[in-house]
Amino acid sequence: MSKGKLIVFEGLDGSGKGTQIALLEKEMKKRGRKVYVTAEPTSSSTGGMIRDALGGFVRRDAFELSALFLADRIFHNANTKNGIRLYLENGTDVICDRYYYSSFAYQGIDADLDWVMDMNLNCSEIIKPDLCIFLDADIESCDERIEQNRMDREIYENKETQRRIRKRFFEVFERLRNAENIKIVDASRSIPEVSADIIKIYDSIKEN
Fold this sequence. Notes:
Elements: E1 6-11, H1 17-30, E2 35-39, H2 45-54, H3 62-78, H4 84-89, E3 93-97, H5 100-106, H6 113-121, E4 131-136, H7 139-149, H8 159-176, E5 182-186, H9 191-205
Parallel strand pairs: 1-3, 1-4, 2-3, 4-5
């Protein structure tokens, strides 16, 4: 049995990740693949602590949030009930909405970026993705989607912070360009156009 592929979607808040993940999942299943869709933070107790912080209910600095995300990510990979490693070893492809790239870009704007990257990239329990797809959407458009679809905004969901985060994403991608398979997709186009590009990218890795 061949191992599954780990495909990660990244992007600013409001970039359309949920829509494109659902479309890719549908296409993969149509082709007979087993697919498991997951997200970070997880539903673990640590994930709950993270969501409370993101919602502004509990104040935590970027270093503490980075450490919480690391703990949650280790659980996400290694837990024996529904961990990423378990699905991959059973031949199931995993699509994950956010992964360590988000830690680098979001917490990395205020915490020490080298420290955040080092503890994630050098943790043996955290699996390196086969593919990271970054949906690059205009900040104004993302902000409009957030306004339309959220009752309340999270702590990072303002235009100035999103600009800083987008810049940090691209700095991180430049650092990782020789080590990881990262593809940037123009998400400002129509949903079908974006989806078609993502499927082409998926086709390039599925047989590897």
